[in-house]
Amino acid sequence: MTVASKPILLVKSGGEAALPEWRASFAEFAPQLGLEVRGWHDAGVDPLAVEYALVWQPDAGRLAQYPNLKAVISSAAGVDHILADPQLPDVPIVRMVTPETQQRMAEFTVMSSLMLLKDMPRIIGQQARAEWVEFSTPRTALETRVGVLGLGALGLACARMHAQLGFDTAGWARSPRNEPGLACHAGAAQLPAFLARTDILICLLPETDDTRHLIDAALLRQLPRGAAVVNVGRGTHVKSADLLAALDEGHISSAVLDVFDTEPLPADAPFWRHPRIIVTPHAAATPSRRERARQAAVAISAMIGGVPVPHLYDRARGY
Ligand code: NDP
Ligand code: OXD
């Protein structure tokens, strides 16, 4: 008699050190799935038993080695690093969006807007020089217009939290929508009106062929003089040289940048030392491993049960 092996969930995120936590979390949230959680570098794994992979950046060609792979679960909300694999198998890809991701991202973007509103780049510079210069900023949140590019799972959470704080908040997406308390714009035709009324622009778009380098000189010029930019989408959304030129010329007053073309951001990148830029290390909204395991368990259970899987990547839309 042969004993059927358990389906393997291969986990890359966090490396070997994170495996005990992943195992404990999957045992807590998915005991009924009977998954065996194994590490990405485990040489003893039977390729035929691998049914699921939880990864952020798989080594190119690696996922194609598992003929029974049923789904790739991204350990991040964005799946660009997974799509970069030229031999990616044609299986469902699940984006990691959890309530905790939404809360963390909303908090991070509100923090960024408040930092820009209170001119924190100037305060950080003054502190570095031990320079006491008192000043007052011109506006409160109530007179500040925030515009969120992307009204998906994360953009909408951010827009709502800004509106709750009293920011005059608008959003822009591909398709029209109605959201109480938000001025919603859609498509290329409504982008100019959205930009013209935006003092703080927050990017929460996915990386697609249509959104890459969207924030270029032409777009920045359509923002009111003195507007600020927060990029938490992807580094590729912003043309770096155009943003730096707009900052140096004074059309854009300041920026918070969390994502970059190359990560980690190279030590010689001009963003690090620009006095009007706050750099954060892709730290906006990473949920705990326990929360990610909970979400992965929900997705795998839905797939097995034949019910709609939340936050499934849509190949036709590209996000
Ligand atoms: P969703 O897929 O839920 O939402 C995407 C939104 O962007 C939708 O509103 C969609 O419009 C809109 N959109 C897509 N393409 C276009 C376009 N061409 N023109 C106008 N609008 C467009 O994504 P999430 O909200 O979950 O995540 C967004 C991104 O945030 C991720 O892809 C990732 O890159 C980034 N992210 C960054 C993190 C960080 O730590 N910095 C953490 C997590 C995510 P519509 O509603 O019409 O479909
Ligand atoms: C991302 C994430 O997609 O951290 O950037 O979830």
Automatic annotation (TrEMBL):
CDD domains: GDH_like_2. It comes from the Bacteria. InterPro entries: D-isomer_DH_NAD-bd, NAD(P)-bd_dom_sf. Residues 112-284 form the D-isomer specific 2-hydroxyacid dehydrogenase NAD-binding domain. Keywords: NAD, Oxidoreductase, Pyruvate. One of its GO terms (molecular function) is NAD binding. The keyword NAD applies. It holds the Pfam family 2-Hacid_dh_C. This is Glyoxylate/hydroxypyruvate reductase A.
